[in-house]
Structures are given as C-alpha cells and as structure tokens.
Write a structure and sequence with these properties.
Layout (H helix, E strand, L loop, with lengths): L9 H8 L19 E8 L8 E5 L7 E3 L16 E8 L6 E7 L9 H6 L4 E7 L9 E4 L9 E8 L4 E8 L17 E7 L9 E4 L6 E8 L6 E7 L4 E7 L8 E2 L11 E7 L7 E6 L4 E6 L9 E2 L13 E6 H10 L3
Antiparallel strand pairs: 1-2, 1-20, 2-3, 4-5, 5-6, 6-7, 8-9, 9-10, 10-11, 12-13, 13-14, 14-15, 16-17, 17-18, 18-19
The chain binds 2-acetamido-2-deoxy-beta-D-glucopyranose (NAG) (2 copies).
The site of one 2-acetamido-2-deoxy-beta-D-glucopyranose has 7 residues, from loops.
Amino acid sequence: MHFLTSITTLSAFAAATLPITLAAPASSSLQPRADPFVGYLVSTFSDVTPAVQFHLSKGNDASSFSFLNKGQPVLKSTVGTKGVRDVFLAHDSARTKYYMIATDLDINAAGFNWDAATRTGSRGIVVWSSKDLVNWSAASLRTVESANAGMTWAPSAVWDDATSQFYVFWSSRLYADSDTKHTGSASLDRIRYTTTKDFVTFAPAKDYLALSDTPLIDQEFQYLGKANNFARFLKNETVNQVYVETTTGGLFGQWSRTPGYVRPESPREGPASFADNVTPGLYHLLLDDYTQYVSYQSTDPAKSGAWTASNYPNFPKGLKHGSVTPLTQKEYNAVAAKYPA
Ligand SMILES: *[C@@H]1O[C@H](CO)[C@@H](O)[C@H](O)[C@H]1NC(C)=O
Ligand SMILES: *[C@@H]1O[C@H](CO)[C@@H](O)[C@H](O)[C@H]1NC(C)=O
C-alpha cells in the first residue's frame, strides 16, 4: 500500500512552482578557466573501512591514481553510526567552500540489517567543511529528512550560482505519518532534495523524482558544458541497473530518458560522473559492480549504448560509491602535500 496515491515527478511540479534554471557550475571543462584543471580527486570509501579516502590522479590521466595518505582514511565520522558510505565532495563555483557529505551508515555494526536500515535508518547526512580541501572541520550529523522518512542515502549536491546555494539530493522511502515507528509498508524509494547555503540549515525536504512503478536510488548529475544542460544517472532498484536522462532545461526542466541501461549485462550502482579535463565533450562514468568501480566513457552521454568500458588496467581496485572532482594546480598541490601517497 502506497499512501502517496498521486505521484508526480518534480520536473512537472517544479515547472509550475519553482522556475529554477541553474547557472553553469564552474566545473565545466568547456569554459575558459583562469586556473586550468590539472588532475582529478576521487573521494570514496570501502566496505571494510567506512571512512573517507582520497585517490589523486597522476596529472590529467583518468586511468592512473595514487591512494593518498598512504592508503589511510582522510576523514572518519565521529557522529551518528560512525561509518560513512556514498561519499560526495561538493564545492561552490569560487572554490572557496568545500563540503564532504556522506551517507551515515555502518553496515559492519553489530546487529546491522538492511530492513532496519531502511525503516529507522539515519535521516541525517555526515558533513565536513573546509576552505582549502586540507583543513577540515570536525564531522557533523545534519538531519535533512522529515520524520516519516526511513533513511537518507547517497547524498550529492549541485551548486547554483544564480541563488548562491547548493541543491542537495538523496534517496529515501516514506512511511505514513500515522506509522510513527515505520513498521508498515513504505513508498517506493525516490529521490528527495533540499537547498542549503552552508550545510548547517536546510529547507524542508521535498520529492525531486518519484516514480509510481520504480524504486530509485543513487542519483548523480553531470553538467554538460552549456547552461542548463545536464545528464543525470539513476539506479533502477528493480533491475539493479543504472540509466541516463538528459535535459536542456536545468535540474528542474524536462528530462528525456536514454533507452536502456548503461551496462545492461550485469548489476551496477553508485554512479560518479566527471568531464575529462583535456578532451572537450568527453565524459567519464564510474559504476560500482558491487565489488568496486569500473570506468566507462562517452562523447555522447544522451545516446543509447554510448558508454564504452575504458581500457584502464591500472585503475585502482576496491573503490566504492564516491565522487570525482577536477582540481586546479593549487588544490592538487595542497592535497598532495597534506596527504602524501
Ligand atoms: C583550520 O581551520 C580552522 C577553522 O575551521 C582555523 O581556526 C585554523 O586556523 C585553520 N588552520 C589552518 C592551518 O589553516
Ligand atoms: C525498472 O525496471 C523494471 C523491471 O524491468 C521496469 O518495469 C521499469 O519500467 C524500470 N523503470 C525504469 C525507470 O527504468
């Protein structure tokens, strides 16, 4: 029984009520930049060590990385479950405010089970902040979900220049307001969102994308180099496959589904996408095959079947759901000096 009987996608809802068109984030490799990007930083975790880990590319080579901090975590959660998964590094376009955000979930905890994790899981995200990528605040647990939500999974964020705030997305399932202990049946997993300027205070959570027939998790966006042009990657939890949609109308515009799935032959989750720093129009996509990240690439993200496996034999093993951030020389030098491999 789904207590939400009439589910509309927010793209339709928002068109009427929230005329938001997002300005181009600064992470576009197509825009002329005063500070060119010189490498990539992967923020990730592992099943055995649910803490934030950094891998830094060798220059702008998306196939070759060093495990920073001698393979030790750079940030450990001291709040909530004290474990983190689904790590995402967000920053403003001026690159003066960085936020590491993550799911608050320790699957190795005594008595852990997935059913409880989706009924009475954490409704907060773990947040660390920094002005320079190397001097980080202590961890905070910030509640972003309402009391009828079962969990808050896989947060990601997009900075909006026009409103000087972040849009923060995650997935959850919702229980009837009368079911305060969340023992009954829930809605399907859907994508939720809020806005924040500082990852301290947040607007009330709302639905972003809720389908009547498909549980959805693990959404991530990719800016496509032109104002309001984005791809988004979503996991269909019925088939455990990742699919792609694209828009020319901003995050709250109309989206078109690319038929099929990125890798229809086997289960994938946890997409992390990034533009190539060297080749305009080339995009990379990391997908977790339930053991580790596998690397794909495409010059036409909207085209069906366009993602091919990258021939990256040296790509690091064991990486899980994370994010990839292009770095300026100053940022690259800072993380390499603070967290030597
Ligand atoms: C690190 O950040 C804290 C505030 O979060 C600040 O007090 C301190 O001076 C900073 N240290 C360095 C070396 O920048
Ligand atoms: C998810 O997979 C199920 C099973 O194949 C299918 O019926 C449903 O339409 C899919 N939904 C999306 C959004 O891909």
